[in-house]
Amino acid sequence: MSQLITAELVDLDLSATTKADAARSLAERMVSQGRVTDLEGFLADVEAREAQMPTGLEGGIGIPHCRSTHVTEPTLAFGRPRSPIDFGATDGPADLIFLIAAPDGADSDHLTILSSLARHLADPGFTAALRSVSDAERASALIRGDADPGTPSSDGQPETSGETADASADPDPGPEHAERTEPSTQSQSQPQQPQQSSDRESGASASEPFRIVAVTSCPTGIAHTYMAAESLERAAEEGASSTVVTVETQGSAGFQRLDPSVIAAADAVIFAHDVEVRERERFAGKPTVDVGVKAAINRPAELIEEARTKAARGESSPKASAAVPMDKGAAEGDGFGTRLRTWLMTGVSYMVPFVAAGGLLIALSFAIGGYEIADAKSVADHFVWTEAHSWAALLNQIGGLAFGFLVPVLAGYIAYGMADRPGLVPGFVGGAVAVQIQAGFLGGLVAGLLAGAIVMAIQKVDIPAVLRGIMPVVVIPLISSAIVGALMFVVVGKPIATAQKAMTDWLGGLTGTNAVLLGLLIGLMMCFDLGGPVNKVAYTFATGGIASADPGNGSLMVMAAAMGAGMVPPLGMALATTVRGSLFTKTERENGKAAWVLGASFISEGAIPFAAADPLRVIPASMAGGAVTGALSMAFGSTLRAPHGGIFVVPLIGSPLLYLVAIAAGTVVTAGLTLVLKGSRKQAPKAESAPAQDSGEARVPAGV
What we know:
By secondary structure, the protein is of the alpha/beta class. The protein contains 27 helices and ten strands. Strand 2 (56-57) and strand 3 (61-62) form a beta hairpin.
C-alpha cells in the first residue's frame, strides 16, 4: 500500500475560501494520485459527513473526513489556506486542514488515521511546525511521523525553535508552550492501556503517585475522544504533582477495557464524555469527575486537580449512573424542557430505522400483491416459492413485525435517554403494554417517560455496597418493570388508549379547511430544520398514525402530506440551480444535480448544503414550499400507506397525479422564492469567494 500522505497531497498555499472549496482542492490532488476514482461522488460523501456534525476542532484545525466507495486506499491530504476557513469550531476558523479519505467499509483504517492524527494534533509543537513549514515534502514527513517537529529542515533552518516558533506560528499561544517538551512519539503510537501507566510510573518520583483512570468518548467516537485522552495524559506528565493517568478511549470501533486491577488501584476517576460511558459500573465507589469531552481538551489540569480534591475529601460515587448520558448533550444550566426534548429525540432516533425498514417492506408487498395481501395466511404455514403472492405475503409479514417494534423501541430508548441502560427493560415492557392495550404512539411516549423516571428514582436510593453488583442486572429491571407494567395496564394505559382513538377518529373525520390547515402545519414543520427535532416531531406524528393495525383515511392523508413536504426542499434547490445557476456557487450547482435524486427519494438532507450556506433565504423558501405541498396534498385527499420511498411508491398513493401536482407546486414556490431572495442581494454572480458566504456556510440550523 502507498504512503498515507506524500508531498503531492500537500498544499501549503491553499487558495480556497470555503470549506467546500478546500475539500474540492484537496480532493483533486487525491484524484491526480489515483487515490479517488470519482471526484464528485467523493465530495458528496464528504459533504454528507460534514452535515452530520462540524469537523472543526479547537486550535484552528479542520478535519473533513469520510468513508467512500470512490476511495481506493486510505489517504490523507493537508492544506494550509491563505486565510482561515470556518469549519464550525467554537474558537474560530481553521488554518490547518486535513482531508481524510478511507475506502467504504474500511472502518479500522478510517479510525486509525483519525485517532493517530488527533493525538498528534494535541501536541502544540506538531501544529506549530505545520504552521511554519515551507516545504511540502517536510510537511508530509511530519504528518507521517517520519520527521521530528523540533529538528531542522533540509535547508538547515529549524521548523520550530521553542518559544520563538510557537509565538510566530500559533495565533493564540498560551503560557504552556514555553514549558512544552518534545512530543512523545510513544503516546502517539501506542494504545491507552495499562502499559502506558507503568511506563509513566517508572519515570515518576520515588513517592507513590496519585492514580487516575479516565474514560473519554464523543458522539462520533473519533477525534475528540482521542484528543481528550492525549490532553489528560500530557497534563499529568507536566503537572507539578506526581500523577499517573490511564485512559480508556471508547471510540466508534469499540474499546479495550482497562484491566480491573488498574481500576481497583485508582484513587479517582474522570469521565470526559458526550455519550454513554459503557460499563460505567466498573468505576463505582470512587471519587468521580464527570464532564463533557471538550472540558478534558480545554482544561485537563483543572480536572486532575478536581479529582485530587475530591479524593482528599473522601468523596465517592456509590451509584452506577450519577448523571444520564443524554444530559451531556445539553449545555450546563439547561432546564427540564431541553432535557425532555433530548430524551424524546433519543427515542425517535432509534425508532426511525424500524419505521423505514418495516414501512418499505410493507410498501413493496402492496406493490406486488395489492392491499389485500395484508389478510394473507402466515407464510410459515403456506409459502410457494414460485408465486408472487407468497413473496408479497412474506415481505408484508416481515415488515409488519418490524413495524410492531416501533412503539416498544420508542419507549425503551426514551427511558434509556433518561436513565441509561437500566431504563431499557422497563421501557420496552411499557411500550409492549402500550401496543397490547392499543395506546399506540402516545402510550409509548408515556411509557418511556414513566420507565425513565422510575429507574432514576430507584437509582437515588442509597444501596449497601454488597448489593450494588446486582442492582442493574436484577433489582432495577425487576422493580421498575413491575411498576411500569402495572401503571400502564390499570392506571394510565386506558385513558391514553382513549385519547389515541380520539385522535385517530379526528384525523379520519378531517375535511375541508381543517385538513388543509393541518397539512400546512405539517409542511412547515417538515421543512423547518431538515431532519432536526421539529422535522422529527412531524414525521413521527405521521408514521405513528399509520403504525396502527387499521389506520384510518385521515392518518394516511397525514403521511402523504409529510412525505410530499419533505421532498420539496431538495427539489426546490435543484430547480433553482437549474433555472438561474449564476446565483449559486459552482459547488452548489453541482449539489443541485444530486438534489434531484435526493428529493425524489424523500431525502430532505439534500437541501442541507444550501441551508448551511444561506440559511436566512433557503429555510424560509423551503418552509413556504413545504406548506403549499402539505396543504394541497390534504386538499386533494391523497393517501399513503408507506412511511418512505418518495416517487418510487407513487403506485401506493391515493390520487397520485394530484399528489405529484402538489409536490410540483411546492417545488416551484421554493425555487421561485429562493431566486427572489437571492436575487435581491446586490452581489456579483461570482460571489462564491466572498467572505460573507464563507462565514454563512458554518451556520447550520440547530438539528440539521
